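User: Some background: our group keeps a shared notebook of sequences we're curious about, and every so often someone picks one and asks for a predicted structure to add to the entry. Today it's my turn. The entry only has the sequence so far, pasted here. Could you supply the structure so I can complete it?
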Amino acid sequence: MMRKNLATLCLFLSSGSAFAGQIGDATFNSKALGADLSVNIYRPDGEPPENGWPVLYLLHGHDGDQNSWRDLGNIQKTLDGMIASGTIGPLVVVMPGAKNSWYVDSSAVGGPGDYETAITGDLRSHVEKTLPVRQDKQGRAIAGLSMGGFGALRLAYDHEDLFTAVASMSGAIWQNVPAEDLDKTPAELKLIQDSAFFHRVDRTTITSGIVLPSTGDHFSGAFGTPFDARLFNEKNLFTLVAQHVVEGQDLPSTYLTVGDDDGFYLWRGAVALHETLQADNRTSELRITDGDHVWTVWKTSIIDVLKFIDSKWDSDKDVAEN
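Assistant: Of course. Here's the predicted structure to add to the notebook entry:
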């Protein structure tokens, strides 16, 4: 699949089309952060439709920033080529800088800040007031890589009324810490990661064991300092999914992709989440691609992500009308 996407990307970039969107950088004050939030925004060429362009919020990974997709992901060329070729329709892409926040509200526990509220509230409001974009769920999606893949899923599942679709590329996805392990220190959790995964196999369903979070400094206090397993479980994806299942609520259409050689073994979490969603008949697509936890994977994976998201604009509305 990666070889096919590389060929497709080369075709897009060599098309010679005059179509050229623009990426502009901006900074605005976020009330939730009590500070400025920096953002890059891709705006397509041409005039917007009467109801505005659909908008994708595209999140960076750990140690990244608002420039990551522009500078390392070649996102402008990919978007220009795919739009010019008619592979996807024009859209606005918003790329915020969120530090190592894990896209959660964490000021109360001494973390980087309330980035969940900043993005779903302050940034969304700013974008919808200043750009000709759609302001309905059916015209809004979110995606990200690594930490941003986790963040995209969290924000989509915690604010299911805002997003019609979500995509995670090599997302940092882990299951909840089991009750018997909640009081273990981060060092103790790290020691049992492999045994928890390989030795807790459900022999009736042939599913793998528990995918424990990779504890360490990379959480930057987002889940407490030191890492608080109870707080992690409270904010984790699997808790959100379980709540929606119990309450019978819809979830955004989900697309998961990860490299088979991912150095952080993040395919474990992607498979676990896909199995969980599929078990309750939720819309979920899973793609295991060739590659590690690197930009060469994400620059090609984004092509199928954009196709998936493009296919979901207005999908909820279509179902409701039928």
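Suggested note for the entry: The first helix runs from residue 2 to 13. The beta strands are 22-30, 35-43, 55-59, 92-96, 140-145, 165-169, 253-259, 284-289.
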